[in-house]
Structures are given as structure tokens and as C-alpha cells.
Amino acid sequence: MQTRIHFIEELSRLNHDILAMGTRVEEALRRAVEALKTQNVELAKEVKASDEVINALQLKIEDQAAVLIATQQPVARDLRELVTVFKVADNLERAGDHAVHLAKAAIKLSGEPPFRQIDRLARMAELECGMVRGAVEAYLNQDAQAARRVAAVDDEVDAEHKQVVREVLELMKERPEQVERASRLLNSSGYLERLGDHMTNICEAVVFLVEGSHVELNE
Amino acid sequence: MALNGNSSAPPKFDVDGLDLYYGQTQALKKVTMKVAPNSITALIGPSGCGKSTFLRVLDRMNDLIDNVRIEGKVLYEGTDIFGEVDVIDLRKKIGMVFQKPNPFPMSVFDNVAYGPRVHGMRARSAAERRALAELVDRSLVNAALFEEVKDRLHKSALGLSGGQQQRLCIARVLAVEPDVLLMDEPTSALDPISTSKIETLLDELKSRYTIVIVTHNMQQAGRVSDNTGFFLHGELVEYASTKEIFFNPKDERTENYISGRFG
User: Fold this and answer.
1) Predicted interface score ipTM higher than 0.85
2) A80 contacts in B (CB within 8 Å)?
3) pTM, whole model, 2 decimals?
């Protein structure tokens, strides 16, 4: 059937863009944390600039998906897939914004001796790079089990975040003169924590796509 | 299997284990389906799947075909329609609208008055004439056609557009004050605007009638119906709320059909 072939081709083009978007978000996150660790202001600025590409990809993906809905009138799993596309693109875009926030914090925190908690942030970012990749792959493979595994990683991220909060609050009490900088660190940990939530949202959307029911993967 | 509609009210139709044969060919296989009152049920499926045959069972139109053998139970308001039932009376309660508008070659008024006259309504006295005229007007209003034809009630119905003719056919059915409307692809010969008018009309008619509609237009089934039944090779493969059928069907054959994966 001619129309079906067209639909499948368009969908695969769209999924190609989602893969590209996921790759860019992962890269932005990796580079933002690298900038934070190494106090590399130039690298942080690059991350900020690269967000435009991510935003443009989101709009392109959503436009393509809207056109497919309008012209192909998909139903059932096809429709759930396109609804999921919007959620995936939206959450990836938000994740990209958090990478930018992290890059901005890297710029502000540069020039003075780094906090040792940055190693924990790097550990969180490492876990989340895996989550970004895993969530996008789970979507592309329509694999609900993989989505559940990826979402489970968020517990580790949350545990790290809580530990950072504890340590930074201690530090603030001990060294009140550091409160301003330490609060940036606290925020950075918060960005990373939320980034994980966005990946969990994608995983929930994947389960919805595959199984047709809404689940809460982040208790 | 979740269905829309009033599930506590007794079903308008209760079909159980219905088999239908045209000679040696089995056209319906063990169809079981309850139709809720004041609901719109869409029947979908590829050509030859049995959906129109099923529709015709409901008002015993298949009686007109030779060699038809029917087994199983079809209850209309709790009464076996193949039992001691006056078929004329049954068809008065259960009206049918067909794919192609088929107005009679007479005036708009006479088209709508035809059914009531056949069923014995007289127009000899002034009072009787008024009653008939009111019934015709009311039927045209309820079919959302009155405003368009009120100045030409006594001109030929054949001069109406396709969409108007189809609404005239609906008015003609409404004039005998039925309880159920069966529709066999009522908009497949119409343009989108006429189709939209009929779909809006269906929604209005639902509060007073039970509607069963056969359609090849999947989007139409999605737009107008509360429940959808998918037929394939004479089997009712899946019957559920329209929302469920179009968003999350349980049977892979349903999914394949509505997504255009057949053929």
C-alpha cells in the first residue's frame, strides 16, 4: 500500500532526527560537566551556543509529526508513536536547557578552587548520559523493558543528588562566605536531578507507546 | 471489553451466537453483540466482511434474499425478531438509510409523508392534513433539512443536492417515528460539507434514537460513534468503545486494519 510506505518513510526520517537530537543532548551534557570540572569557560560557552541546534531540532521534529497526523490520520499504535514523539522531543529539549544551565554555572564557578562535590556531579552526569542514550534507544526500538531499566537508573541519580545537598548544606554552615558559590553548586545538582526526571518521562512515554497504558516510573 | 453507553439499561439489541449463511457460504460466524440504547455503534471492516449483512439482520432485510439461513438469537428490546413478530411493525421501529440517497420521484413533502401514509395516516380533514404537515415539518427539522427546503416543499425532491437528498431520506425514516436508525454508509456518496452536516445530525439524533452505522470511513467511525465493532471474514473480531478501538485496540487484526496494514 502506497500510503503506508510513505508513512513509514516519514516516520523513519523523524526518528532519525530524534536520534540526532538525543545525541546532541548527551554531548551537551557531557561537555557542560567537563567545563564544570576543568573550569573551561570556552567549552561552557560552546555548550550554550549549541542549544540552538537542539531547539531547532525539536521544532523540526514536532512540525514533521504534526504534518504526519494531519495528512496520514494515524490511529492506534501509529498515533501513540506520534504522541510519544512530541513527548520525547519536548523532554529532550528540556534536558538540553539543563545542560545549558550547567554550562552557565560552570562559567560562574570558574576562577576559584573547585568544590570536591563536582566529582559527584560528574558521576550524576555520567549516569545521565547513559539515561539519555538509553531512553532514546528504548524509544527507537519500542522496548518497554529497556525503558523501565533506564528509568531505574534515576534512583541512583536522586541518591547522588541528596548526598550533594547534604554535603553542600554542611559546607554552607561551615563556610558562610562560600554560600553564594555553594548555592550555584546546589542548583547545578538540581539541574542534573531534573534532567534525570525528563529522561524518566521519556521512558514512561515509551511504555505508554508499547503497552498502551500510563505508568509512573519515578516513585 | 469496555463499552460506552448506558450499561445498566437493557440493551436495545442483544445478539448472541448469530450465524448467517447465503446458501453454502457462511457470511456471519457466531456474532455476539449488545447495542446500548441511545448510543451510536459503528461497524467497520473490509468489503465482504459481513458488516452490512449484520446490519440487515437487525431489521430482517435479509428475509428478502433467497437461500438465507440464520441461526442464533437476535433480541430487539428483549423480543426475538425471528419469533412471533410483525415484520412491517419491526421495520417501522427500525429504520434504514442507505448508501446512495434514494428519494422517490415526487415532491419533498410527499417523500416525507410517504411512510406515514403507508402506515395509515390519512389527510382527509383539515385537522388530519395539519397533523401530517406538522409531522413532515418536524421530520425535516430533525433531519436538519427544513431551512433549506421550506420554500420548495412541493417541488421535486430530485432537484435537491446529494447531501440534501440524503438528509431527506433520513427525514423520511424519522417521519414514521422509529426507535432505531440503521445506516449503511450514509455519507460515502457525499462531499465533506454534507458529510459533516450528517455527522452533526447523528449526534443530535442520538438522544432520541439508537443508531447503528456501517462505514468505510474510519475517521467517521472515530468521530461519530460511541462504540465500534470490527468485522473480518464474518467474525466480530473486536467490539469495544471507539476510543479503545482507535487508540489501543486489543486484537492485532483490528490494529492492522485500522492502520491500513492490510492488502
Assistant:
1) no
2) 247-248
3) 0.83
